[in-house]
């Protein structure tokens, strides 16, 4: 880290603090040459490897824009899209890898989008998974229905606590 005052390359860290969101670290430094103090903010970078082999920094905005197209005409707000993009980024960062394939980002989008809106999920999946026939749509719809029925049957098995008698 170069000192912004004298361009010396040597500095020492006086204090380190994580940001409120936990995604960056603020470091207070002191130059060993001129003794002036300055702050740096350090963040981890996440690089996306595209199909062509090109790399670019991860962008939540690209996730939102891609999903927004699938959500056109659906009851999905910009806040919902921002939360979805945050969930996708969190799951990708949770993998611990600094480089991630673009394909992995698409897979990370499918789960949260499925929970958000099933129609938007089908639209996104049809492009992302390259549906080529009606049978591909039918298979995806059948899987959605099976998952919904399974979730509903699990919810029916949950005991209602209001019906359980509690003696005092």
UniProtKB/TrEMBL annotation:
Residues 154-168 have a biased composition (Acidic residues). It comes from the Bacteria. Its cofactor is Zn(2+). One of its GO terms (biological process) is negative regulation of DNA-templated transcription. GO terms for molecular function: ATP binding; DNA binding; zinc ion binding. Pfam families: ATP-cone (PF03477), Zn_ribbon_NrdR (PF22811). The keyword Zinc-finger applies. A zinc finger (unnamed) spans 3-34. Residues 149-168 are annotated as: Disordered. PANTHER family: TRANSCRIPTIONAL REPRESSOR NRDR. This is Transcriptional repressor NrdR.
